[in-house]
Write a structure and sequence with these properties.
Layout: H1 12-25, H2 29-42, H3 55-64, H4 70-86
Helix pairs in contact: 1-3
Length: about 100
Amino acid sequence: MDDAHLSLRLPGDLASALDRLAETRGVGKSKLVREAVGQYLTGNTAPEDATPLLAADFRKVWDALPHLSVDEATAFDTDVQQARAALAPPDDPWA
């Protein structure tokens, strides 16, 4: 079967994450997108040729992720707690 060409637009944050993952895994972005679409359509959780993630590779992925400072994490936690307190309790589905 011949390959089909597909063009798509991604939001900036998703495109950046795709760039980082492709660089970390040492593969092309097209390969990652093909794997993701294949997994989505077939319901598979991992590509057939998936290799175990080694500690060194995990470290690269971890370093590429955004991290919160202690102050940012505390502020985020406070915001979440306040948002939870502001929510009305859910309706009782058994009432």
